[in-house]
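Appendix C reproduces, verbatim, an entry submitted by the partner laboratory led by Prof. M.T., so that reviewers can inspect both the input and the predicted structure.
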Amino acid sequence: MVRYVPRMADGQRVKLSWPLALYRLNHIFWPIDASTSSNWRRLDFAIALLGCLIFMLHNDAELRYLRFHRSNLDTLLTGMPTYVILVEAQLRALDILWHRNQLRQLLQRYFSSIYVDRDAEPQLFRQIELKLIPNRVVASLYLIAVSGYAIAPIAMLITGRKDYVFPMIPSFDAQPLYLFVPLVLSSVWVALSIDTMEFGETTLLCELVAHLKGRYELLQRDMESSIERILAAQQRPHMAQQLRELLVQTLHRNVALNRFGEQLEEHFSVRIFIMFACSAILLCTLGFKTYVSPTGTYIYPMWFGAKTVELLSLGQLGSELAYMTDSLSTMYYQSSWEQVLYYSTNPHENLRLLKVVVIAIEMNSKPYYMMGLKYFRVSLQAVLKILQGAFSYFTFLTSIR
């Protein structure tokens, strides 16, 4: 069973960032290669189905814990963060599994035509990597948080206690060792799967957005340099035609980038909505448990910090992409068409040039915002509203405690 291997248009294998390399190891979420045989596909489906059943087992056990402790706010909120994370992960996982083939097609198009190569554009690649530093911090914080669950079995062996990894009440007697050990190991697997999904998918989305914005910057740079060459050559009978052909060529690239953005939104729309919808209540409960027991487990503050930085970094990249696409109409308007018309001696081509300029401005009159089910905008403003809502819920909980 071979996982999809990212390659550029020339067949060269892409060196993934370390969060994406870890995400690729997740056998549920990363797509398999198109050449995989039907038998291996059935095995992959069986493994994914087994993983979903394990998720459902933990969902039931954690929900029982919440129902049993519903009269005690502190104890209830101890299990609330992990349950919200689990429900969010289940919903996102179902959407990922349903659209895994579409994800492979999206990645193939991304790495072949959108991805900014380190060797071809080293300066722009460095700028993109700098923009993605907060996302690397997010991945590190998530790994620190999940380490608390990963070392739980070792702590149980040292202390000789039988504690569950998550706050849960199973529907069966799990005290016999032949049941307790598989349950604990499955809990560790759930924690690792959710953790790699959390930072892996966000890393993938951030890189897609950052490199798409980089392609728009290359589009603008190439057009400006070509216009300078046209003005410098000053071939007066042909200047209007040259600029018109340049604008048409740029528009073709522009439309291709816009269509990739639409494909990107279509694929991630549901999962963005789920992520944003669950973030306020999750941050609220994580913040509350960190506030009431600051000397307790480090998992809650680490996850709180990771989720906060994750939303802010994603929102910032979404806002920058929207600002970039909003400036495209200005880019076409400032394409020096007035100077070309002044020097041009071809009235027919002048008229055709003006029509292309008007079309280009009209096509880019609205900025591109990635949306979550046409409800949430991936922007810094939307993230700040989520953080404000989480703080409001947090204030309410501390007031009734």
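Strands lie at 371-372, 376-377. Additional entries are available on request from the coordinating office.
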